[in-house]
Design a protein that fits this description.
This protein has about 200 residues and is an alpha+beta fold. It has one domain: START domain (Alpha-D-Glucose-1,6-Bisphosphate, Chain A, domain 4). Helix content is about 20%, strand content about 40%. It contains 4 helices and 9 strands. A 9-stranded antiparallel sheet has the order 1-2-3-9-8-7-6-5-4. A hairpin with a 3-residue loop joins strand 6 and strand 7. The relative contact order is 0.25.
Length: about 200
Amino acid sequence: MTTKQDPKTTQVPKDAAPAGAQAPPMPPLGKPFQVGLTTATVSENANKTVTLRLKRVIKAPPAKIYNAFLDPDALAAWLPPHGMVARTHSLDAKVGGKFRMSFYTITKSWSNTFGGTYLELVPNQRIVHTDEFESDDPSMKSPMRVTITLTPVAEGTLVEVVQEGIPAPVASGSPYGWSQSFEKLAQLVEPELPF
């Protein structure tokens, strides 16, 4: 979700992180770990990409969270990690429909555009879509698959995200970026407004 890189790497691809950004070290592989209120598990794939599994309970009904993933304005409000803003260029929330959006710094000194196609939409339960960065950097040219599952629980909704095929340059920062996004998602959907 975020675009940072392992600090052991000597050069950060221009599409991977804003200038001077340092990502945390790669988390332990195959072992669940906590990032705030999010539980994350990272595993490496044979093609040198990473699969990330995330879980967090959000105190809101599944329908509200489902809508937050598919409403273009809501998605731009909560998906970018801290320090970034987003623009949703297009979002056609139907099977076969496409989306495209960009993250960028407020000074516009860095940006990253990505998009994909919706493969499965089960209202209030499941969203599956492809995802890929628009980049000239070959190390960022990895097609990803994102599966979002929403399960009602006593406290609200268990949100589970599996992101497969994450390019190596962004892998170490992904759990932290997603955790920040989940914080913003909770802030958006948990308040019970009187209107």
